[in-house]
Automatic annotation (TrEMBL), chain A:
<dbReference type="GO" id="GO:0006865">
    <property type="term" value="P:amino acid transport"/>
</dbReference>
<feature type="transmembrane region" description="Helical">
    <location>
        <begin position="199"/>
        <end position="219"/>
    </location>
</feature>
<feature type="domain" description="ABC transmembrane type-1">
    <location>
        <begin position="91"/>
        <end position="395"/>
    </location>
</feature>
<dbReference type="GO" id="GO:0022857">
    <property type="term" value="F:transmembrane transporter activity"/>
</dbReference>
<dbReference type="Pfam" id="PF00528">
    <property type="entry name" value="BPD_transp_1"/>
</dbReference>
<feature type="transmembrane region" description="Helical">
    <location>
        <begin position="25"/>
        <end position="43"/>
    </location>
</feature>
<feature type="transmembrane region" description="Helical">
    <location>
        <begin position="276"/>
        <end position="295"/>
    </location>
</feature>
<keyword id="KW-0472">Membrane</keyword>
<dbReference type="GO" id="GO:0043190">
    <property type="term" value="C:ATP-binding cassette (ABC) transporter complex"/>
</dbReference>
Automatic annotation (TrEMBL), chain B:
<dbReference type="InterPro" id="IPR051455">
    <property type="entry name" value="Bact_solute-bind_prot3"/>
</dbReference>
<protein>
    <submittedName>
        <fullName>Amino acid ABC transporter substrate-bindnig protein</fullName>
    </submittedName>
</protein>
<dbReference type="InterPro" id="IPR001638">
    <property type="entry name" value="Solute-binding_3/MltF_N"/>
</dbReference>
<keyword id="KW-0732">Signal</keyword>
<feature type="domain" description="Solute-binding protein family 3/N-terminal">
    <location>
        <begin position="34"/>
        <end position="263"/>
    </location>
</feature>
<feature type="signal peptide">
    <location>
        <begin position="1"/>
        <end position="23"/>
    </location>
</feature>
<comment type="similarity">
    <text>Belongs to the bacterial solute-binding protein 3 family.</text>
</comment>
<dbReference type="InterPro" id="IPR018313">
    <property type="entry name" value="SBP_3_CS"/>
</dbReference>
<dbReference type="GO" id="GO:0006865">
    <property type="term" value="P:amino acid transport"/>
</dbReference>
């Protein structure tokens, strides 16, 4: 193409200066050079300023001893661990909040979004109030609201302890309660899997596989004969019964670690801290209000004729919604949904307001104990960009799968 | 040229370090006409803000004293309220000229962070506060407790070390702002509040029922609190350090806010030299200050003892005893090099 464009009327080669392809290459190369030069300048300037402030730079500090403890950790961590491990703990806590928050926000958002379109006046109004309230408050305030709210509503731990002590004094057979909801969090017996439990896991995997195979067979059967075997019932039965039978046969290889009321605090068992709970509720419910609006817009975007056609065929409205309307609405819903997911993950960096040890809070502590502002901020940015890009890529793949395939 | 400036600006923005004039901090402070001092805004006795926005406290008085030494006018100071987390970047970036925010002098802060510490205006140590009803007599009984602590402090590290070395379990509840820690402790989220002992006395007053809380006898760390400046400007470092030493020296000589004018006429050559009354002495000028720099400091905030009693001692609600902070010749650690 370029050679054709670059010839003048007589077919002679014109100057490269007027060749659009050559020119575009030159401009692109120049742009790249300028960007590289700017980055290099910024880098060398930073290094120079650091040297002038008698500070050192580099990521070597990450292998140093952290020296501080963290309130919640999914992996083994103590004050003897390294800064790098502390950051991993924070990163996992961020992922935990992100994944659980996204799942909850999607479910709540879907229900509220459909609810807003309900013919039931009360349900529709309640959903509208929910959306308008949560959507119009800054997320930081929502987190504060839940944290202070959760802390002040939950009963005081010391009062509960006093109550249990009293009951114990009256009747020595009384033990510590299994579940305790207090301002120290929600504690519950945590399972301990003994060696024999592996068989139960294998049975569960086999049951799930069996259920999938049966459902696929049921689908084909339905397509062939028009009659659908009871796939749901069989699958559920398989998934529940098979592991249960193996569990009993293996001699019940499961024990529980029960929470124990200590002099100050609870020990043993599992604990959901109020910090996690409030952040999780705040982010899920806040994002759900946006997702509700996206869902509503998606459903509204499906032509009215689709509802009417279902009605004419005598399809029950709830079936029509599930089988006809929602699948079409999904195509409109998914792209904006992605940005809400990204928002939720990014908003989780407000965790510091509720004292939840996420990546930013742990990073803040490290930044302070080691004085490495630039390095820690760089790590934050890289990690958040990576999480967001991965989420984005996944959602794009999902969108491509759901998109209308033209045949 | 324009590109150069642009690149410099971007570079500076990336690091948050403004390209500073090559002149020293003293010249910069004099040129802008006021001292920018980083302080605490929520620790009564050390640095706190009243309802009309005025700052007060022992650290705040040190800032005022430096302003008095430089300008002869203690009002030529502006305060930047800082959280524990923000204080170091604020000093590193040149946003403030000095940091007086109950900051512990440690080796790594001195070396790695690029600061200079010398004067110690309060000798402190970390302690624990618990509710009286828990009936705790010693920190060694605290195993299993939930502990409220502020992030980015030496407190957080001492806490981990202390509990580890005594084989005690605990559950840290960490916040970035002191107000958040206060609120969480007040709400019963944790059993123990730990920070510098002076801070505990101050915080106890702000709780809804101060008498329900006790401060345990253990002191688990050394916390020498003092002003910090950026490394590499020894002239400015000397001024800040010797402002504190001047306050201590004044107490030694018995010079107070009230009697400083009279003391100028003292027959004691040490006092005359200190107050800039000795013929031919150029101590003030050698610091880059005026001849009567010490007089200005004492007029502004009084001697160290006066500042102590007014802010944290018997003249304040905190009623902290002098203890380690008494003069060296009265059983304490406050000791100033001779000013001659």
């Amino acid at each position: 193409m370029a050679s054709l464009d670059a010839r003048d009327g007589d077919g002679r080669r014109a100057s490269l200066l007027y060749d659009p392809t050559a020119r575009s290459y030159v401009y692109q190369a120049l742009t790249v050079l300028i960007v590289v030069w700017l980055i290099w300048q910024a880098w060398s300037n930073a290094a120079e300023n650091l040297a002038r402030a008698n500070m050192t730079a580099g990521f070597g500090f990450l292998s140093g001893r952290a020296g501080f403890d963290l309130g919640q950790s999914l992996i083994a961590y103590s004050s003897d661990s390294t800064f790098a491990r502390a950051l991993v703990v924070g990163f996992l806590n961020t992922l935990l909040i992100g994944v659980l928050g996204i799942i909850t926000a999607t479910i709540v958002g879907l229900l509220i979004g459909i609810g807003r379109l309900s013919n039931n006046w009360l349900i529709a109004r309640l959903c509208t109030v929910y959306v308008e309230v949560f959507r119009n408050i800054p997320p930081l305030l929502v987190i504060f609201f839940w944290y202070k709210g959760v802390l002040s509503i939950l009963p005081d731990f010391r009062a509960i302890r006093a109550g249990v002590e009293k009951a114990k004094a009256a009747d020595p057979t009384v033990g510590d309660p299994l579940f305790i909801i207090s301002n120290r969090g929600i504690s519950f017996p945590s399972p301990i899997f003994q060696p024999g439990f592996t068989a139960v896991w294998i049975a569960l995997a086999a049951a799930v596989l069996g259920a999938v195979v049966f459902t696929l067979w049921a689908n084909r059967q339905q397509a062939a004969t028009g009659k659908r075997p009871p796939a749901l019932l069989v699958s559920l039965g398989l998934i529940i019964l098979l592991p249960l039978v193996v569990f009993l046969a293996a001699g019940r290889p499961l024990a529980f670690d029960y929470p124990v009321l200590g002099r100050f605090n609870l020990s043993g068992g599992g604990l959901i801290s109020p910090e996690f709970l409030s952040l999780y509720l705040a982010l899920s419910l806040y994002t759900a209000s946006f997702i509700a609006e996206i869902v509503r817009a998606g459903i509204r975007g499906v032509p009215k004729g689709q509802f009417e056609a279902c009605g004419a065929l005598g399809v029950h409205p709830s079936r029509a919604m599930r089988l006809v309307i929602l699948p079409q609405a999904m195509r409109i819903i998914i792209p904006p949904l992605t940005s809400q997911y990204l928002n939720l993950i990014k908003n989780s960096s407000l965790a510091v307001a509720a004292g939840y040890p996420d990546l930013v809070q742990v990073g803040n502590t490290i930044l302070n104990q080691s004085g490495r502002s630039i390095e820690v901020i760089a790590i934050w940015m890289i990690v958040y960009v990576t999480i967001s890009l991965v989420t984005s890529v996944f959602m794009n793949w999902f969108n491509a799968k759901m998109a209308l395939r033209e045949r | 040229m324009a590109n150069r400036i642009l690149a410099a600006l971007i570079g500076a923005a990336v690091v948050g370090i403004s390209a500073q004039a090559s002149a020293g901090t003293l010249e910069d402070v004099k040129a802008k006409g006021f001292l920018q001092c980083g302080v605490n805004a929520n620790l009564s006795g050390f640095g706190s803000q009243d309802s009309s926005g005025n700052f007060a406290g022992l650290d705040v008085d040190l800032c005022k004293a430096v302003a008095a030494a430089v300008f002869g006018d203690a009002t030529k100071v502006k305060f930047t309220p800082l959280s524990a987390k923000d204080r170091f970047p604020a000093l590193q970036s040149g946003e403030i000229d000095m940091l007086a925010r109950n900051t512990t002098w440690t080796a790594s802060r001195d070396s790695q962070l690029g600061f200079d510490f010398r004067a110690i205006n309060y000798y402190d140590g970390q302690g624990f506060m618990v509710r009286k009803e828990l009936n705790v007599k010693s920190a060694l009984e605290l195993s299993g407790a939930a502990v409220c602590v502020q992030t980015g402090t030496t407190t957080e590290l001492n806490l981990a070390d202390y509990f580890k070395s005594h084989n005690l379990q605990y559950n840290p509840v960490v916040f970035e702002k002191q107000e958040e820690v206060d609120a969480a402790y007040n709400a019963g989220r944790c059993d123990v509040y730990t920070t510098d002992q002076s801070g505990l006395y101050s915080i106890r007053l702000s709780l809804s029922n101060p008498d329900d809380h006790v401060i345990l006898p253990e002191i688990i760390s050394k916390e020498p609190l003092g002003p910090a400046v950026r490394q590499g400007d020894s002239k400015w470092f000397d001024i800040v350090s010797f402002t504190h030493y001047a306050m201590v020296t004044a107490e030694e000589f018995g010079i107070t806010q009230a009697n400083v004018e009279e003391m100028k006429k003292s027959a004691n050559p040490d006092i005359k030299r200190f107050l800039g009354e000795e013929e031919g002495s150029t101590i003030g000028q050698d610091f880059g200050l005026s001849k009567d720099w010490a007089v200005n400091i004492i007029k502004a905030v009084g001697n160290y003892g006066e500042a102590f009693e007014r802010n944290v001692g018997q003249g304040s609600p905190l009623k902290i005893k002098r203890g380690l902070n008494a003069l060296w010749n009265q059983g304490g650690l406050q000791y100033a090099p001779p000013i001659r």
